[in-house]
Amino acid sequence: MTTKKTPLPQAPKRRLSWNDPGVRAIIYQGLILGIVGLAVWYLVSNTLYNLAARNISTGFGFVNREAGFAIGESIIPYTPADTYGRAIWVGLINTLRVSVVGIIAATLFGTLLGIARLSKNWLLSRVASAYIEVMRNIPLLLQLFFWYAIITESMPGPRQALHPLPGVFISNRGLKLPSLQGDALDWMVAGLALAIVGIVVIAHWARKRQDATGKIFPLVRVGLALLIALPVAGWLLSGASLTVELPELKGFNFIGGLSMSPEFTALLAGLVMYTSAFVAEVVRSGIQSVNQGQWEAAGAIGLSRARMLRLVILPQALRVIVPPMTSQYLNLTKNSSLAVAIGYPDIVSVVNTTLNQTGQAIEGILIIMAAYLTVSLSISIFMNWYNKRIALVER
């Protein structure tokens, strides 16, 4: 006996009718897209016409021409005979330099402030609260001017420089520190990088081990041992060819050693002081979001307050802390563009000089926008990845 298969019902054919919501939606979207395209075409064509009328060339060919201006601070070699592209690269590196150091310092200082504000010590809690409220309510630009004036006007000259530690000098020319020189430096940096990778791997293993057995691995002691042992091993493998170069006063300034200019020092101080106040509030809110029962349970098994924070409270608070912390990192990076106000040669300052000399204003603004967009998206991608990594997994 054979059974006939019943044909599946076919969907009715859609007719092009204004009464169909889907058709209307397509028409509206097409109209909006057309209007946006016409607006972009008008702006681009009008800009090109005005540039041509004023005999202003367009394009990015200027980046291969000789810059002809000096940059006061550069990690990589640079001379006025280099190209505009090289100068822009120097400005971008300077921006990344102050942003990376600022993010690390603001995170550490802000975390300590947030914990201090929740301290049971009345004086410590009130001092932290006063600092946070003052710093959050003073514009960052004014703070940069304040720190720059403190360094350049209140600090003594190089001959009367403050000398708090051996090889450390503080004057109106900035901060001078000892530096390491020699072939062993590369080996030591490689050892340090290897130690950091090792700590990450061991931390991942220790977390799994603790979840499986309940035993706590002494990660802090092992991590410190690796941070000391591997760079020392690199120093020994290289033949111990390493010297410490101390700053020396020659004439009207110091030579040798590691130098932090007044502009970099003022910008870094302003960014860290300002951003750490916001980071402290993020940390405080994250800690307070953890249920009080977690504190009581941690105390019931005999954990000290410091171990409660490190092992129980902060790992749970991170899920609340990370998303707003991402915004603070982005704000610090974008706020570094205020460096032009105190003369630090970041990418905004360098590109401003470039467009003043070449007249390529549109291209210069596009370069600045692309640089900050790339850096900000990189920070967001990393923080979103980390946020997903620590998120609770639903079962």
UniProtKB/TrEMBL annotation:
Quick one: a GO biological-process term for this protein?
A: amino acid transport
Q: Which Pfam families match?
A: BPD_transp_1
- How is this protein situated with respect to the membrane? Multi-pass membrane protein
Tell me the keywords, alphabetical order.
Answer: Amino-acid transport, Cell membrane, Membrane, Transmembrane, Transmembrane helix, Transport
Q: Where in the cell is it found?
A: Cell inner membrane; Cell membrane
Entry GO terms, CC: ATP-binding cassette (ABC) transporter complex
Q: Which GO terms describe its molecular function?
A: transmembrane transporter activity
Show where the ABC transmembrane type-1 domain sits. 92-383
Q: Where are the transmembrane segments?
A: 21-44, 98-118, 130-150, 187-206, 218-244, 264-287, 365-386
Q: Which family does it belong to?
A: Belongs to the binding-protein-dependent transport system permease family. HisMQ subfamily.
Q: What is this protein called?
A: Amino acid ABC transporter membrane protein 1, PAAT family (TC 3.A.1.3.-)
Q: Which organism is it from?
A: Pollutimonas bauzanensis
